Structures are given as C-alpha cells and as structure tokens.
Fold this protein.
Amino acid sequence: MLDVTAAWEDRLRQAGGVVLRYSLVLIFLAFGLLKFTAAEAASIQPLGAHSPVLFWLYANGSPQSASDVIGVIEITLALAIATRRFLPAVSAAGSLGAAFALMTTLSFLVTTPKLDSDFQGFILKDLTLLGAALWTAGEALRAAKSAPVGRMASTEA
C-alpha cells in the first residue's frame, strides 16, 4: 500500500509542478502579447505611471511604448520559464523575474490613487501567481544544481 501511495504522491507532485509552471508561462505570454494592443496600453497606463518601478517608462515615452517594453519583458520571462527541461538555471532566472514583476503589480494596490475595485480584485490574483513563480524558481534551481553541464535536467516537477 505504501508503494502505491508513494508512486501517486510523486506523480501528483510532478503533474502539479508542470501545470503550475506552464500555466505561469501561458499567463505571462498571453498578457505580454496583450501589451502590444492600444486598449491594454491605455488600461495599464494609470497603474504604471504611479509605480515606483515603472514610472520612468511613462515619463520617457508614450503609454504604448511603455506597454510595449512591459510586453517584451513579460514574453521574455515566459520563454525563459519554459526552458526548464533544457536550461533549468535560465528557467529559475525567468521565474525570479516573474516574481519581481508580480511584486511590482501587487504594489499597484498601494501606489495607484483611487484604484478601481475591479482592478483590485484582478491584481490580487497575482498573489497566487507570485507563489507559483517562487515555487518554480526553487524547483528549477534544485534541478540546475543536480543537472550535469550540457545534459537535460531531471524530470520536471
């Protein structure tokens, strides 16, 4: 009985890790692509303009150019996270970058004056994504440490 339970625990942990990692990739990729649209650029402008991390993008360019830069960063992070099987250290760096981006987004809750309640709920989901980013960073760092140079990392978790 214990062997069956242990096998299922391992399978569930592995499946959960893959779902967690690649849903993070999908979310960052999708929202990164959205940043290239005028509607998305206009909707994030009030958030970014008041951010202590992003304000300079809006001070030095148009809302669309600021949104484009954010989009490139989000897409780059998504692609980096997706490299876990082949380049776990790169994946870990992407996950840590995603964690920083998500902390920046969460900071909008306190840096944006008169933040609409719809935005508050939307932003709050980033707390869960932050947990996913931190977990995938730790898991990828563990894989990078155990993977021989030039060889694929062990099975994804």
About this structure: Helices lie at 2-34, 38-49, 55-59, 63-81, 88-111, 117-124, 126-146. Residues 2-146 form one domain.
